[in-house]
Amino acid sequence: MHKGDETQTREYDRLYEAFCSLRTPEEASAFLADLLSVRELADLAQRLEVATMLNEGSSYLNVSSTTGASSTTVSRVSKCLNGEAGGYRLVLERLDGKGGRKDA
Predict the structure, then answer these.
(1) What is the rounded distance in angstroms from the CA atom of residue 77 to the CA atom of residue 14?
(2) pLDDT tens string 26-70
(3) Phi-psi region of 86 (alpha: psi -120 to 50; beta: other; left: phi over 0)
(4) Which pTM value belongs to this model?
(5) From CA 35, how far away is CA 30, in angstroms rounded?
(6) Which of 58, 68, 69, 93 is the most buried (most CB within 10 A)?
(7) Which of 46, 37, 48, 40 has the alpha carbon at shortest distance from 69?
(8) Every domain of the chain and the residues it spans
(9) CA 69 to CA 99: how far, in whole Å?
């Protein structure tokens, strides 16, 4: 492992720990407002909405037209949603216990 790799790993670990330290949506909002640009935050929110809609069974076309996400973004999110890491699935399940939307 290169010296830079070790530093990057420590930086990533610290970022992950920072997210885990947040206790409320208000704390998350404050941290993300400091960490990300308005556009970056909007992109992340859009990706989560894309994942939510795909998980509910919406078609790629419907997801794209509803969210404004490009077909490339919808495809990428779909690949991740069904991929090994399982991050989207974990978050969606925790948001409402079944992976869909609370308000749906």
Answers:
(1) 25
(2) 999 999 999 999 999 999 999 999 999 999 999 999 999 999 999
(3) left
(4) 0.83
(5) 9
(6) 69
(7) 46
(8) 1-35, 37-104
(9) 20
CA distances for 59 relative to 6, 50, 78, angstroms: 41, 10, 11
Q: How many residues does the chain have?
A: 104
* Own/partner long-range contacts of 43-48 (Cβ < 8 Å, ≥24 apart): 46/73, 47/73, 47/77, 48/88, 48/91
| DSSP string computed for 34-79 | HHS-HHHHHHHHHHHHHHHHHHTT--HHHHHHHH---HHHHHHHHH
CA 66 to chain centre: 18
Task: Find where tokens 């948001």 sit.
Answer: 95
Q: Which two tokens stand for residue 69?
A: 């996400």
